[in-house]
User: What shape does this take?
Amino acid sequence: MEQLKISNQFCFPFYVASRMITKLYQPLLEQYGLTYPQYLVLMVLWEESPLPVKSIGEKLYLNSNTLTPLLKRMEAMELIIRTRDTKDERKVFIELTTKARELKSDIACVPTTLFEKLDMPMDKMQSIKKDLEDVIGLLNKSLSED
Assistant: This one.
């Protein structure tokens, strides 16, 4: 049964790469008191804030049951403010605090530091990123058909 060998699995390299990238980010983010998922939320909000929780979840491919505890911790860290919509209380908006806005300039060095650790040409990284985005699109399409 060759299909049951781990070395033949299409998904396994994605799993390993994801874990290793997160592990590389960990020491870079620890100095700011952040986890990788918190860093991702901040990046989304640095692009646009406030945003509904649903929009953040869609951008990060996270369900609300995963995102809500993460956002609560970030609120306790005084990085975000959660506000209920006055017209629809089920809708929660997330906004950056001044502390989180100021953190952006401090943390801007993180991606560059990570890329330097990888020691890979930028065009190769961009090519891999594009291929991964294509795979994500195919996976997302397959999941939405179920």
User: Anything to note?
Assistant: Residues 21-100 form a domain with the Arc Repressor Mutant, subunit A fold (CATH 1.10.10.10). DSSP finds seven helices and three strands in the chain.
